[in-house]
Amino acid sequence: MGTTQLETVPEPKYWHLKTVLSEALDSDFSVGEILPNERELAARFGVARATLRQALEQLELEGRLQRRRGVGTTVAPPRMGVDVGTSQHNWPGTPGDSWQPVDCATGIAPAAVTRMLGTGFQDELHTVRRIRLTHGQPVAAELLYVPAASVPELPAIDAPSGPARARSVLRELQRLGLEGQDRAVELGSARADDAKELDRLPGAPVLVVTTRYFTAGRTAAVSVATYRADTCRLTFGDSGDLEISHHGPTAQAS
């Protein structure tokens, strides 16, 4: 067979530099250590700053580096395992759920969520915001959209928002009979609110996990969870359950 056009394309300079930098991170730096500034690094490796910047961005995307506000670029710790697939389908907020409620607001859903819920564009719903921590580090932020029609018996508590209201919505949701759920995963960019909660820069790569919960033949709630792409990697086990695993042994979702 002849040589393809792609095979004749030389390796980009930034990609070769990324490999060299990756080896340097393993041998010369420790986790959490702040890297020298771009000028120093470019001089050290004899490259242009534009090439260096491309290599650093790729290493950040792969989870080897972290850019922290007011600190600089640091060596990232190994990716952490965060299970997001379950063999037993449960409502959000049930015992064993590792998400922490942060707030709850009442309003209307974004157009894309409205289409998934099959509700009217002006129908009222509750938006529960939750955060997920692993080893004390925020790894995911979630918006759970619950139509008011799904929780008609929601008690009229004093607080119209906040964690207490969020827990109240979750309790009412769990009264419904869960018939099933489906889940989709895609690569996205961190919005300003999510970036702030996850200690990332706006526009940073994230993994977006969208889950629909079904009851009585309809969609009762939609969850949009944003995971840090630099700390998590997704794998699919033989059972079809979705997992997030770190660089060590993969843990089966349960």
General description of the model:
The chain has helices at 13-28, 38-45, 49-61, 111-117, 163-173, 192-197; strands at residues 65-68, 72-75, 99-107, 125-134, 137-147, 180-189, 205-215, 218-228, 233-236, 242-245. By secondary structure, the chain is an alpha+beta fold. The protein has two domains: 6-75, Arc Repressor Mutant, subunit A (Orthogonal Bundle), CATH 1.10.10; 99-245, 3-Layer(aba) Sandwich (Chorismate lyase), CATH 3.40.1410.10.
Secondary structure: elements and pairs:
Elements: H1 13-28, H2 38-45, H3 49-61, E1 65-68, E2 72-75, E3 99-107, H4 111-117, E4 125-134, E5 137-147, H5 163-173, E6 180-189, H6 192-197, E7 205-215, E8 218-228, E9 233-236, E10 242-245
Antiparallel strand pairs: 1-2, 3-4, 4-5, 5-8, 6-7, 7-8, 9-10
